[in-house]
């Protein structure tokens, strides 16, 4: 189970990780995009941190919905609508809940994929955040169905996301600014897939750290 306090810890940790990786993500985006992904994601999650005290007493769904609204209003470019939609979709899955089960987490990841597909009109292999997110959702669901715990399922999902992120390097971009480059987009890691991997890995790190403490 994942409780509300762990979700808040995760979101705070994401803000730290994205701040630490701001330049790295921006460098990736400078090659095939607008050179602002790291800057935008950092700004969005720093804003999220300022909003967390206002929702600390609310349920997980309300917390994640606030994240969605904050990202949409504070992140420019494509990332705001995409990540905003992602968090909006997952907030609906856990509306009213104070704890998240393994089954809930599987539904969360599937809903995240569906939201990104609908908003971004991307497919697997288009060299987008979906190339990290979709394998993570599929892997988590399969692991959970095979009886793995939430943390073990998430560990496998994060590994799949990392591989999916790396798989974007040889891909030809078919969506967003990177698609304008044609063959020149080949050979570069997608920044959106990278930030998606970092966010998922931070969730795993948060849960593992909390488990060791307790």
UniProtKB/TrEMBL annotation:
SUPFAM superfamilies, per database record: DhaL-like
Coiled-coil intervals, chain numbering: none
Organismal lineage: Bacteria, Bacillati, Cyanobacteriota, Cyanophyceae, Oscillatoriophycideae
InterPro entries in alphabetical order: DhaK_L_YcgS (IPR012737), DhaL_dom (IPR004007), DhaL_dom_sf (IPR036117), Dihydroxyacetone_Kinase (IPR050861)
Gene name of the record: dhaL
Organism of derivation: Okeania hirsuta
Protein's name in the database: Dihydroxyacetone kinase subunit L
Record keywords: Kinase, Transferase
One family name in Pfam for this protein: Dak2
GO molecular function annotation: glycerone kinase activity
Gene Ontology BP, a term: glycerol catabolic process
Transferase keyword on record: yes
């Amino acid at each position: 189970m994942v409780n509300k306090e762990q979700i808040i810890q995760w979101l705070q940790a994401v803000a730290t990780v994205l701040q630490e990786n701001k330049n790295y993500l921006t460098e990736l985006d400078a090659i095939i995009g607008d050179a602002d992904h790291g800057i935008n994601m950092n700004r969005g999650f720093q804003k999220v941190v300022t909003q967390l005290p206002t929702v600390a007493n609310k349920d997980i769904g309300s917390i994640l919905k606030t994240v969605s609204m904050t990202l949409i209003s504070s992140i420019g470019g494509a990332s705001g609508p995409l990540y905003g939609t992602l968090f909006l979709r997952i907030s609906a899955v856990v509306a009213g809940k104070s704890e998240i089960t393994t089954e809930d987490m599987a539904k969360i990841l599937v809903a995240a994929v569906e939201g990104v597909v609908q908003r971004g009109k991307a497919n697997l292999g288009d060299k987008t955040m979906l190339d990290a997110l979709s394998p993570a959702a599929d892997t988590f669901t399969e692991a959970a169905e095979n009886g793995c715990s939430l943390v073990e399922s998430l560990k496998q999902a994060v590994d799949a996301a990392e591989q999916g992120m790396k798989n974007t390097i040889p891909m030809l971009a078919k969506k967003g600014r990177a698609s304008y480059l044609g063959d020149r987009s080949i050979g570069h890691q997608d920044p959106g897939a990278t930030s998606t991997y970092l966010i998922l890995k931070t969730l795993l790190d948060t849960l593992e750290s909390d488990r060791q403490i307790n």
